């Protein structure tokens, strides 16, 4: 049985871990590419040997030549500079725009039919850049944001209540940054809203910790940034598309009037299936929640305008 051809651009910690997860879930045969000579080749060879131990039949090939992504059905973009302690996602804007813009041009040429999931920060702006530079249908370009942010919120809720994370479902909207909008009303434990289970003060603390989730990890690591959860989140989105699971996942998608936002990528719940972004769900938000989401979108627009 033939498997889809998948490409991961960037063989750093996020990219390599993403490639490993794709192979181990046998979602497709993977091309791992990076500009650093030998790195994608060495990591790919190591992963192939690991796959043999685990009984995974999907293959992985490392390369320094972007041309090798030719014909990929799905591309995950992780290449770019990582955040350092004290650096905001916005600080990365121009440096990563140069990198991602060039990659978008290459994807347009070599993988013109691909779905694209963007992970590089500042994520919402980089996703917009890929959309504009490729000229792809907006259903085929999306950013990995809300899945990761919601996972962080879920984790903190489970830790706070001492319950299984399997029973926790959280929702985080908006930009992937300090202006993200965690929604306690739509965050539940076995269907029960956390607003019924926890005092407002504890919820507020978890909301703040979620907003600073990436920075907390950067500060602890001292060098580098999170990669286990970001890679798992990107693969979750990829699997929903490749296997037509039609999962409702919070993703950075292009809005056209939903939530009063037009022409911008922002994190909202979306159905992901074989056609990419198949549906955008509009939640009933309070005035404060909607204002926060629109404020988050305005911050993204400021950065988009800078480019």
Task: Spell out the key features of this protein.
L-2-Hydroxyisocaproate Dehydrogenase, Chain A, domain 2; 3-stranded antiparallel β-sheet; single chain; 9 helices; 307 residues; alpha/beta; 6-stranded parallel β-sheet; Rossmann fold
Strand line-up of the largest beta sheet: 3-2-1-4-5-6
- Give me the CATH architecture of the largest domain, please: Alpha-Beta Complex
- Helix percent reads 40-55%
Domains counted in the coordinates: how many? 2
Q: Which class best fits the helix and strand makeup? A: alpha/beta
What is the mean predicted local confidence, pLDDT? 95
- The radius of gyration is 19 Å
Shape: globular
* Poorly predicted ranges: none
CATH topology of the largest domain, by name, is: L-2-Hydroxyisocaproate Dehydrogenase, Chain A, domain 2
Q: What is the H-and-E element order?
A: EHEHEEHEHEHEEEEEHHHEEEH
N/C terminus separation:
44 Å
Sheet bearing the most strands, described? 6 strands, parallel
Strand content: 15-25%
* CATH class bucket of the largest domain: Alpha Beta
CATH homology-level superfamily of the largest domain: Lactate dehydrogenase/glycoside hydrolase, family 4, C-terminal
The number of distinct β-strands equals: 14
Number of helices: 9
